[in-house]
Design goal:
Nucleotidyltransferase, domain 5; 5 strands; 12% strand; elongated
Length: 276
């Protein structure tokens, strides 16, 4: 600041000493003359380059995910993120009122599943509807179906795929468990509710206008959009279906999950089976 003012005065024909300007602005002269001797942080390229390549390919990955996938120390990766300013922008922390209700969590696999719908732009085929079903314990994305129709048949197809994926066949489950969803027309339709009852599941509806009560599947949808949908311009329904299928396979089998102690959803289910 002092230097800028001094240059401005000189341009107008006034020459004022640095000492006088410091006195006017009540700035200690030692502060003006101070120059940091701290060396710039040194980064090892053997860490920087692989990290850069991964976040260029997957910009929404945080430092924990990157560290796990590359096999690096997470503190090293976090420091590189901070120095390079690659840190994913965090939402501001503040008070937000929440409805007092049971969250969509489970203590064992097949205790509670969760389902929801979202819209996907499919290029020449226009808007499509994606139905997802996840296990709230393993976070595994068990079933999904992408269709131009937002009718109950789309959600039904996703649920049946989930049952086949988990149990290997369609049929009434041996032990009934909960299926959580919102109160949309699809999930409250006669066709869908009859199908759910037919397979021995129990429907569980969230409080109206409180999507946070179905937070696990909502978070999966957000991750899917950040890491796949928003990064790809789908040309058709077939293109979208292929890309989403590839991402879901990556999510279930390769992507580490912080809530699962950096294991994948598939690993979590297999570990539970081995321990049972």
């Amino acid at each position: 600041m002092i230097e800028t003012v001094q240059q401005g005065l000189e341009a107008e024909g006034f020459k004022v000493s640095t000492a006088k300007l410091c006195k006017w602005f009540e700035v200690p002269r030692r502060s003006y003359y101070y120059k940091s001797v701290k060396a710039k942080p040194k980064l090892q390229e053997r860490f920087v380059e692989p990290i850069k390549e991964m976040i260029e390919e997957n910009p929404s990955f945080g430092y924990r995910t990157v560290a796990h996938l590359l096999g690096f120390n997470k503190n090293t990766v976090q420091r590189i993120f901070q120095i390079k300013r690659w840190q994913v922008r965090q939402r501001p922390i503040g008070f937000r009122p929440r409805v007092q209700a049971l969250p969509s969590v489970a203590k064992i696999p097949n205790e509670r599943w969760s389902t929801d719908l979202c819209r996907i732009w499919a290029g020449k085929d226009g808007w499509a509807v994606l139905a997802l079903v996840i296990d709230c314990y393993t976070r595994e994305l068990l079933g999904w179906h992408l269709s131009r129709s937002g009718k109950a048949s789309t959600a039904e197809a996703a649920l049946e795929q989930a049952l086949i994926s988990r149990f290997g066949t369609l049929g009434r489950v041996q032990e009934p468990f909960l299926l959580r969803s919102d109160n949309g027309l699809v999930f409250t339709s006669r066709s869908y509710t009859a199908l759910v009852r037919g397979y021995g599941l129990k429907q569980e509806f969230i409080t109206p206008h409180t999507p946070e009560q179905n937070g696990l599947v909502e978070r999966v949808i957000r991750t899917l959009k950040e890491q796949c949908v928003h990064r790809t311009r789908f040309e058709s329904l077939q293109h979208a279906s292929r890309a989403i299928g590839d991402w879901i396979n990556f999510y279930n089998n390769q992507r580490p999950h912080q809530a699962l102690e950096m294991a994948t959803p598939k690993q979590t289910y297999l570990n539970y089976q081995l321990a049972a």
